[in-house]
Fold this protein.
Amino acid sequence: MPFYVTTPIYYVNAAPHLGHAYTTIAADVLARHHRQLGEEVFFLTGTDEHGEPVAEAARAAGIEPKELADRNAARFKELLPRLLATNDFFIRTTDPQHEAKVREVLAAVRERGYVYKGTYEGWYCPRCADFKGEGDLGEGNTCPIHHVPLLREREENYFFALSRFQGQLEELYERNPAFVAPAVRYNEALSFIKAGLRDVPLTRRRLRWGVTVPWDADHVFYVWFDALLNYYTALTYAPTAQGGPDRFWPPTVHLIAKDILRFHAVYWPALLLAAGLELPKQVFVHGYLLMEGEKMSKSLGNVLDPLAVIERFGADALRYYLLRDVPFGQDGSVSTTAFELRYEAELANELGNLASRTFGMIGRYRDGVVPVAALDRELAEGLFAGFPEGVAQRLSRVELTGALEYIWERVRGLNRYVEQQAPWQLAKDPGAAQRLDIVLASLACGVRAVAIALWPYLPAAMDRLLEALGVAGRSLSLAHFAPGPPLGGRLGELSALFPKGEVGAGREARR
């Protein structure tokens, strides 16, 4: 089966920040891993360009919404190669093909009897572009996320009959407890459903920046329904989605942040049921990156610029840190101090030093040629037993931090192996030549195994390491991964994978 992974599409009311990079990097790790497994992969990201937040930001800047969307969509698009992301398509909700398909799908939902006209009255957050129930209010009728006063709205709308899907959604959650992960988010979504679903506005009348409703030109579609449909519409016109929805639908996993849980875990499956479309297999919800205890948010003004971080530490280091320091699925604080500690202690000292020592010892003791020798049973049957399966199982559960820790246990294990075997001592004993061959060959194969496993996380550095090892292509097959057959051959040149000091990291980022 193809593997179809998505990020949420990002609002263009401001430039991208580290939180956007976080989700994109996570999706890229999954996409790269599944390509290693030999699967056909479609990785989608893009920008959400309609709705009140964009219109308000454009008004404040004195420009038209489309001009703001064009400007900031370009920034999001330019960020992707800097993150080393390998997305297959970048969707913009102002794409004419997307807008046309939104009208088609939502017209079909209406024809199936799930849309009616009415009047909405209640609380609304313009920054969330979200109508708030009485249980969603912060102190003093404020938004609990953005801490701004909510607006009391009364507006004629067309409504989506969400309440009619109460039973089907409860059945979905009972039948498939993995539909939303981790478990705390599953419970949160199910509690919302069991509290009783209310019909929700499908359209807005007073807002003009959106997709025009085909049966009533005085309305535009509420931005969330327009945005959610991107996961489906992209497959209908992306040139890289050969076979379209017939080939790639339904999505394997949607990656989202917890602030948009309700839309993806409740509204989205109900909308798909109303449209007669198959449901996604999983919605995986990660937590917030926190700065001084608050969610990183453009509207709160507490963001880190991912381009500045890449310039200082390198893209690989950014990818590693975000998925190593913050357990994926939980909230976690980030800081430049923590970046520096992870970079020096783990990337430079543990991984970088392991590669340098291995290449250095093979260069000194075997003239740069990896001995062809049987692998040490301590590694083949101990440290690396079941290694590829262990990585794949964790990543199949979207345990990005858990899989990385599992791999890193092997990095540390190889460093212990070096100290225990002391090749520098074996090299002094002519009678230990065969044992030295086994140790050096086993080290080279162990480094190859962790390099292949780490490639989805650290693609630039691992490309260099694998090239120097003489490995052609990257595969998760047992033959190359655990730690595989004897390597043999002459090693290439390998400069420091992670130069120590931030100046070296910045230089590496620009290479």
Notes: The two ends are 37 Å apart (CA to CA). Residues 502-511 have pLDDT under 50 and may be disordered. Residues 336-366 form the longest helix (31 residues). The chain has 21 helices and 17 strands.
